[in-house]
Amino acid sequence: MRRANLVVGGVLIAVIVSMAAVGLFWTPFSPTAISGPRLAPPGWPHVLGTDGQGSDTASRIISGAKLALLVGVMSVSAAALIGVPVGIIAGMSHRWVAAILSRGADILYGFPALLLAILFAAAVGGSTWTAVAAIGIATIPVFVRIARAATMQVMSQTFVEAARLSATPPLQVAWRHVLPNIAPVLGVQVSVSFGLAILAEAGLSYLGLGSGSDVPTWGRMLREAQNELFNAPLVALWPGLAIAMATMGFNLLGDGLRDLLDPKLREIA
Amino acid sequence: MNGSLMATQGAEVTYRRSGRPFVALHDVTFRLAPGERVGVVGGSGSGKTTLARLLLGLIRPSAGTVSFRGQRVDGLPERLLGDLRAGASMVFQDPNSSLNPRMEVGDIISEPLRSPRLRRRGDLPEVSPEAVRAALESVGLDPATTSRFPHQLSGGQRQRVAIARALVSDPEALVADEPVSALDVSVRAQVLNLLSDAVTERGLALVFISHDLAVVRHLCERVVVMQQGRVVEEGAVDDVFADPRHPYTRQLLEATLSI
Amino acid sequence: MNRLEVTDLTVAFGRRRTVAVDRLSFTLGQHERLGIIGQSGSGKSVTGLAMIGLLPENAHVSGSILLNGRELVGAPERELRPLRGDEVSMIFQEPMTALDPTMRVGRQIGEVVALHHRDRRGGIHDEVLDWLGRVGMTDPERVARSFPDELSGGQRQRALVAMALANEPGLVICDEPTTALDVIVQRQILDLLDEQLQGRASLFVSHDLAVVRQVCDRVLVMLQGRVVESGKIDDIIEDPQHPYTRGLVAAARIGNHPRGTRLPTMTDFTEGGRA
């Protein structure tokens, strides 16, 4: 099936999103309270068992979904809201402005999210917001690059010349001609970056550079599970699975969208 | 230059292609009088499209001058070209790339009317569904076309939209760059009739660029023959075609097929 | 035996089975040149592609195409591949998309030759130069060394002609080969084709009657997937029967109308030709 990527990715993401949505209102137990014996195996009432403290694993996974999506949405939105306009300006401008903006983005590109997170954590202490900031800033250059490349391609089209002949102001050209035509490409990037953001957040909280200890995140759950790996390996499985599903879901969706965008063999009518 | 609507004097356009200079236009002097119809013919590489872009202020000459209504326009920044933008329009060759695929036809046609710089001229019609409907009717398209997208139209219909867009700002000159070359032969006549009627009704000056001599003869009074960036011959269409002086003109005439 | 015998060929696309070619039948003699004329959407290009088995995956083909007596409809790809280049070849409209921009022209032509004659390893380069000379290149060595974007439109099209003829196929399908060229180069390429297609059969697809007339003896007029008229080209031009054909002939005769008069349009003759 040609649309396999799209479908599988969509399903995986739907599962994660549903979990998070449910988690807004209800979790089987409180994710942070001790509600059962330590390291209980999956059964009833703890469907996925309990962790090293005795908290319900399923509730913690659901809670983690909320956070993962929150971090994803905030960091990718921020990155896109900053990166896309910069990229469009770079794509529409003459050489030296574009050069300055591109070099700026490239410099930023050199700072991986991890480094930024460490810097922020050292400065103000690690939290969900420092994670969002670090990941967001690290994602800006990607959007600048993609937006710039797509903009340049649009600018070479004749209809942009026609807009110039209509004396359309540059802002209008960006808003009505460039943006609608680069939107599909940006959409693909949003999906891909979302997956990367979730992965990055998991990594940061695994290292203790993200959310505080009272906020259950998948990364933190992995860290805690490490200690109990020989006693109860299952405890590591669930957060790992959740991270994998979320990341893969967004990646596949991005791939599926990219395939959709490719000029297909159009039906010769 | 006096009395000319559009003109170039000794214009030269040089591009840099991988380090080496490429002369697209060399010492080209061209005049267009109000209401006049001039054909510009030549093969590929003759510079005719470069001339069109020069006349419309889309590119700068590396030497020589370009003027509109007697005022120099070469080298002026975009914000001072209001007169030129309002007074001259262009129809491009490729109906596929000259219309924004993500814009509705109605918005495409009315775009010139939304430009603040053009509106400063004062006599532009307001942006309204009526104005768009009138524009569509004038090119023989159904009013329902307003909400369609370019990919839903045929090549001939897209060119009609392009013509409607070019005419909506009520220009005095129209530059048509091979407007029917990308269309099927069977469809060209409709678009050519449309162009001809529009030009006659509005008393427009027309620069018609083509490598199809039969069409040029049908539409234009004067012809300019270009080869490799130079003007090699010009004059009244019937004279030039009946008695071509330059070997390139003769070559063009011989190559023209007819049945 | 006829070069091509097509019987009730029907090509439909996609799930909705949009019909592009509707029960088309014709024959092509061993050395005959047949033009197929029609506007976009008439099915002419699809017909050309069907003859060489290059239809897209979502095409549903029924009917029969006999190429030198061999059935093409329903034949698997591994049977069709050896035919291409050797028995039937195609010259496309856009040289820039038919040529690989990253490969030198000489090598591309050489690959076509090598495909069918692996034993001739040594002589391939000479053969390539020979062909480039035959298609009218003044400096075959330089052209062979060049990349496609270093050549002019006319040179690229000549290279395509060389590639199509290199293995001496009996049938050459030309799909609007001069549409993207200016009038002088078009004339040169048509003269070249006229010369090089001697002794071969050819199917010439175009929307331009004047172009078809340069190369073909007989012509099929297609409208919405069907043949509406067929016959010798001069007869058709002189005395067109079907309204659509009359419209085509009139459209090709712009020169006959004085300045300022209205040109006859396709809708004057038929409803099927709205722009």
Characterization of the model:
The complex is a heterotrimer of chains A (269), B (259) and C (275). With 269 residues, chain A is an all-alpha fold. Chain A has helices spanning 4-25, 57-92, 95-109, 113-124, 128-155, 158-165, 170-206, 218-227, 234-261. Chain A has one domain (4-24, 48-261): Orthogonal Bundle (MetI-like fold). Chain A is built from 9 helices and no strands. The model of chain A is unreliable at 264-269 (pLDDT under 50). Chain B has one domain (6-28, 38-255): P-loop containing nucleotide triphosphate hydrolases (Rossmann fold, 3-Layer(aba) Sandwich), CATH 3.40.50.300. Chain C has helices at residues 44-51, 77-80, 95-98, 105-116, 124-134, 140-145, 153-165, 183-196, 209-215, 233-238, 243-251; strands at 4-13, 18-28, 33-37, 59-67, 70-71, 88-91, 171-175, 201-206, 218-223, 226-232. A 6-stranded mixed β-sheet of chain C has the order 6-7-8-3-9-10, with helices on both faces. In chain C, helix 4 runs parallel beside helix 7 and helix 5 crosses helix 7 (153-165). Classes of the chains: A mainly alpha (269), B alpha/beta (259), C alpha/beta (275). Chains in contact: A-B, A-C, B-C. At the B-C interface, helix 6, helix 7, helix 8 and helix 10 of B face helix 8, helix 9 and helix 11 of C.
Mean pLDDT over the full residue set of chain C: 89
For the record, what CATH class of chain B applies? Alpha Beta
In angstroms, what is the radius of gyration of chain B? 18 Å
What are the segments of chain C in which pLDDT stays under 50 over at least 5 consecutive residues?
A: none
* Secondary structure tally: strands of chain C: 10
CATH class of one domain in chain C: Alpha Beta
Q: How many helix segments of chain C?
A: 11
Helix content of chain C: 25-40%
Strand order of the largest sheet of chain C: 6-7-8-3-9-10
How big a fraction of the residues of chain C is strand? 15-25%
The shape of chain C is: globular
Count of the domains of chain B? 1
